Each structure stands twice: as C-alpha cells, then as structure tokens.
Amino acid sequence: MRSKNSRQVARPPGHQKNHWGLETGNWRLSRGFTFIELLLSISILSIVMLAVYSAFALGINTYQRFNAVNLNERKVVLGLEKIGDELRQCLDFPDIGFEGNKEKLSFPVAADGQIVKINYSFDSEKNFLYRQEQTQREILKEEEPSEKESLSKEFLSFLCPALNNLSEVSLRTLWKKNGAVLIVTIWVLVILVILGGGLARVVKWVGYLERRLLAVNLAKAAVRWMVLEREKDLTPEYDSIYELQKKRVKELGRGKFVSSIVDEESKININTATQELLANLPGMTPEAAKNIYESKFKPFSLIEEVLLIEGITEEKFSSFKGFITVYGKGKVNINTAPPEVLRSLGLKEDLIEIIERFRRGDDGELATEDDRIFESTGSILNNLQEFTILSVEQSQQIISLLSKNLLTVQSENLRVDIQTEVDNKPNKEFSVVLKPEAEGMRVVRWEEK
C-alpha cells in the first residue's frame, strides 16, 4: 500500500533500469554533472585562469618596467633641454663668469628681474644631477642666504635603476620559466600597451618639441623680417612711435607671430646719464641716483643689475625700470620718448605738454598715421615755434639739451617683442635686443619669457 504522501513519477519512454537498478537513457543527463565531471571542470578552469592570470601579471610587470624606463628617459631629455635653455640665455657678466668641467658647471643668467648664478653638479655615486641658484647679491657681498632666500636644490635622475633592472630580463629566462605560449602572450600585451599608452605619450612629447621648435623659428623669422624692414626704411634719418610700435602680424604655415618694436633710444641710459638726470626718474631718490652714478658695477649689462646697488629696492626699481636702458650712446629720441623721460631730461611740464600735442597730430592721438615728426635735431626748435609760441625759457630748455648732445630723432638700438602662435594656440614669447654694427643689426640679447 502506498502512503498518501507518496506519488509516482512518470518515466519518459525509452528509460529502463539496468541490472544495478539505475536508469538509462537521457533521464540521467537532466539531473546535472557527476562529481568526477565537476572536479575535472574545476581543474581545467583553474589551469586556464592561472595561465591568464600569469600572462596578465607578467604583461603588467613588463609594462611597468618599460614605463619606468620611458619616464626616466623623458626626465633626462627634459633636464638636458632645461640646461640648454639656460645656457642659451647665459650672460657675459664679469663678476660671476662662466666656469665648468666634467663634474661641475656654473654661469650667470637673468631670472625674475635679477642676475642669478646657476650651478650644476653631478654626483657620480648617486647618479644625480644637482642644480642650485644663487643671487649675485649673495655672491658679491658674501652673505649667507636667509631662510626665505635659501638656495633651492632640485635633482634630475640619470640612468634610473629601473633601466638596469629591465636589461636583466632576457628572452631566454622568460622562455625557461613560463613557456612559449606565455612569452607570445606577454609580447602581444606589451605591444598593445605600447601602442595604446606609450605611443600616445611619445606623440604628445614629440608634438611639444615640434611646437617649441616652430616657436623659436617664428621668433627668428620675426627678427629677420624686422631687420629687412629697417634696411628698406625710406626715412632712415628719423623714427616715430607709429613707425616702431605698430603691430606686425605674419602667418607662416602652422604658425603666426605678432611683433612690435620698443625704442631703447626713448629711455635714459644709466651707463652715461648724469646723477641729476637719474635723480629725476620716477621713484628715484637723490641717494639712490648717486649710488647708481658712482657704482662699481658700471658699465651695466642689464638694467636688473641696479638691484645690486644699496638703496635700490624692488619697489623703486619697478617705478623706473620702464624708462632706463643700457643700450645706446646716451641720446634720447624726442619723437618716441615718454613724458617721464622728457621730465628726467629737465624739461618743464608746460614744454612737455607742447611736445606731446605736437607729436599727436591733428587727431589728438599718439601712434597714428597723422603724427607729426621731428625730422632732424636742427629742426626741433623751429618745428615747435611754428606749432605754437614758445617762451624764452622754453626755447632755452631745448637749446640746452641740444648743446649737451642729449637729443636725437633716430632709433638705432631696438627691442623686438614677439608673441608666437602654433596651431592657433599661444606659444612662447620672446624679447630680442638688436644693436647696429658695420655689417648690419646684431642680436645682443635673446630672452624667452
């Protein structure tokens, strides 16, 4: 008798019991894997997962090694490029000078408005290249740098140990340890990693170097264009603000430059100016003017050198740095000189206002096509007297400056300010000073801002 909880399971056709009492046919398959089959499946899956994990682990390890080498190679390239940039901006400054051997290199450059000494030294034991900056004030006055002005020390790693470690990994070792299949897998992964990540970084780095090189060539083209323009000048006897300061825009392939000229003859030459002229500069005190006039650092090579003189602070220097120069023979171009420079020459405010109105032309604006121009020093007084009535005192001021040979109408020493663009994006800015010589204009200062 069957219990009431029991129930009979219908067997599909073709399913019979064997002599052990087990059913045959497809009925067994519907109930799942056997224990042995399950163990075999897990074993095979484990072997496959282990192989995949080993391949990925070795691939990632190889990628990290290659990436470490690539990173340190870029550090070396950047370091050498930085040294090259600073060497190109090295100054001929006798108080510091250029020194160097196979383990140490030092030279002066202009940085952040002052003269600094750059020191490079190589530590052969640690494979490190060290860089130090020291201000000229600390060198010349033998002062210990304060905590705020302590010598900054940076390093660039040369031949990182990762480079040596990578060289120890040989194809034969990998072959013996992991087999041919894993080696093929590793190289496939390495190639994919290099193509996917390393190639993008290389392209980016090459693009940066290409854009930088294009910017330098654009700056050289701007300077060359300006020199040719000066050679073809139809009025070489005189120069005006409109002629010099107008924007010059030129597109060359993927690049473009915008340049303008700053007249160094429109400023006071601190190498030739009298103490009285220096004292009339904005922000200048009689004591500071005397210190500059009597300075042992003269002749100055850069205007920033006056910061080494006692009594000249950053605040004072910022007040008059736009009105001084170290180029030229000490004459001031009356066509381009700003009111601050005319005032420093000793001209009174009423006469400066007359000169300004004369130069603006009929439209009352400076640096336009209708500007009036003094075409010679001999015509300065006559031009002003024809323009308006001058008092005896005003005429005497002009005659006094002419007799001291302090006025001119020409601009010989010029600074070219250049802004470059590459692929429609702003790139580097340059400031180049040109000096006339017998064979033509010569670059006396090249500065990358």
Please explain how this structure is put together.
This protein is α+β, with helices and mostly antiparallel strands and about 450 residues long. It contains twelve helices and 14 strands. The strands form four sheets. Strands 1-2-3-4-5 form a five-stranded antiparallel sheet. Helix 1 (about 35-90) runs parallel beside helix 4 (about 170-230). The longest helix has about 60 residues, at about 170-230. The N and C termini lie far apart (about 105 Å). The model is unreliable at about 1-15, about 15-30 and about 145-180 (pLDDT under 50).
Strand order of the largest sheet: 1-2-3-4-5
Distance between the termini: 106 Å
Q: Helix count, per DSSP?
A: 12
Secondary-structure class: alpha+beta
Radius of gyration: 39 Å
Helix content: 40-55%
Mass-distribution shape: elongated
Average predicted local confidence, pLDDT: 78
Strand content: 15-25%
| Low-confidence segments | 1-15, 17-30, 145-178
Q: Report the order of strands and helices.
A: HEEEEHEHHHEEEHHHEEHHHHEEEE
Largest sheet: 5 strands, antiparallel
Find the count of extended strands (DSSP E, 2+ residues): 14
